[in-house]
Design a protein that fits this description.
alpha/beta, glycerate kinase, domain 1, six-stranded parallel sheet, six-stranded mixed sheet, 16 helices
């Protein structure tokens, strides 16, 4: 079996193993009158109203499980997703927001959720939030009415392309949002609330999933101002948004009471451990998780991964080795092509590894990589040679941020479509 086949199989088998509905079914149980959600237990008879709000790329499968478990006990339901795939549960409003850029559906979904929560803000209401990544774009309402949809899209384009890491982007989004930084939870502060998470952020930092809809996080206005200055955002944002920021007209984050009812169900670490198990037990690899290789400049990360793979190979001569990592590389956009951070990582790594028997795969667990229809790409020691036969210049495609069309021409783009999941990216490097 070729290394490229092994890498591809590990990726797809890992996606199947982290199925969202399976994970949520393990965390959400109804026994008589008692609902157990994560580690939290409540008696449903204590409440006259049960609201379920699901937001993010995994919102639909999460909501389907909640509907199966709770049935007609749900009095109101809302789903904000980026793509409607599979069955939509009954009695749920569904809003299709934009990703990576917000659209009118993003705003409509956020406004509907705020109205629903404000109308039910009392102690007899239980709210079950089902949260996953992607909500930073697909669920949004500006903090000020002067900020239009065009402005929101411009802000997000700047943030995605400026080189900021995800935590920095989410800090900026929080201060410009009427639903992030805990403001969604604040809309119904008197209610009992439980939040379950499918996380696409760094380990244990639940306040940054979808920029923190029910958790305020620890970022301050000083942090916001530092990030704005670091990436010179004032000069890149729409003029009246820049005026709001420079005129100190943005409110501070709310002081949301943080309960213990926030439970992580699935994240990138779980996916990596599953991939490692497949690599070792089913493919006979020496597999190592590089837990420190999470975020960083795409070129530097490509070289560091290859160096780490070489060291692993040297330590285990005669064995097939597999280096695994997850997270999101930083990949500033330079051109107007179709591409994404995963495909650019693979292309850059391939350019440094032409002489080795190797396979390099990087793909998003959400099935989406940047502005392309692919989840990611795979390369091996033949990639550049095959590209040359088609007169494809890797350097030209990098300069245009067009890595998708490079790999698509070779048949090496990984296309899954939206997966209904989102636990960041998976990177697999194999060497024999």
């Amino acid at each position: 079996m070729s290394l490229r086949t092994i890498a591809t199989e590990i990726f797809h088998r890992t996606l199947a193993a982290i199925d969202v509905e399976t994970v949520v079914k393990q965390a959400l149980h109804l026994s008589g009158d008692t609902l157990k959600a994560g580690e939290t237990e409540v008696r449903l008879s204590d409440f006259s109203r049960l609201i379920v709000i699901a937001i993010g790329k995994a919102s639909l499968p999460m909501a389907r499980v909640a509907a199966d478990v709770l049935g007609n006990r749900i009095t109101d339901g809302l789903i904000a997703t980026n793509a409607v795939t599979g069955e939509v549960p009954n009695h749920f409003q569904v809003f299709t927001g934009g990703h990576p850029l917000p659209n009118q559906g993003s705003i409509d979904g956020a406004e509907a959720a705020l109205q629903l929560l404000r109308a039910a803000d009392d102690e007899k209401t239980l709210v079950l939030f089902l949260l996953s990544g992607g909500g930073s774009a697909l669920f949004e309402k500006p903090i000020d009415d002067s900020i239009t949809l065009d402005d929101l899209q411009a802000i997000n384009r700047v943030l995605v392309g400026c080189g900021a890491v995800i935590n920095e982007m989410n800090t900026v989004r929080r201060f410009l949002s009427a639903v992030k930084g805990g403001r969604l939870a604040e809309a119904a502060a008197k209610t009992r609330q439980i939040s379950l998470y499918i996380s696409d952020v760094n380990s244990d930092d639940l306040s940054t999933v979808s920029s923190g809809l029910t958790l305020p996080g620890t970022a301050t206005r000083a942090d916001f101002d530092r990030i704005v200055a670091k990436y010179d955002l004032i000069t890149q944002f729409p003029p009246h948004v820049a005026q709001l920021i420079s005129g100190d007209k943005l409110p501070e984050m709310p002081e949301v009471a943080v309960s213990e009812a926030h439970h992580l169900l699935l994240d990138n670490r779980v996916a990596l451990r599953i991939a490692q198990q497949f690599a070792e037990q089913d493919y006979g690899c020496i597999a190592e998780i590089a837990g420190d290789l999470i975020e960083g400049d795409v070129e530097e990360m490509a070289q560091v991964h290859l160096a780490r793979l070489q060291a692993l190979h040297k330590a285990h001569p005669g064995k097939t080795v597999c280096l695994l990592s997850g997270g999101e590389v930083i990949c500033p956009v330079r051109g107007n092509g179709q591409g994404g951070r995963n495909q650019e990582f693979v292309l850059r790594a391939a350019m440094h590894s032409v002489s080795n028997t190797i396979a390099i795969l990087s793909a998003g667990t959400d099935g989406i990589d940047g502005h392309s229809p692919a989840a990611g790409a795979i390369a091996d020691e033949t990639t550049l040679q095959r590209a040359a036969s088609f007169a494809l210049s890797s350097e030209d495609y990098l300069q245009r941020s067009d890595s998708y069309n490079f790999f698509n021409a070779l048949g090496d783009a990984i296309v899954t479509g939206p997966t209904g999941n989102n636990v960041r990216d998976l990177r697999l490097l194999l060497r024999a």
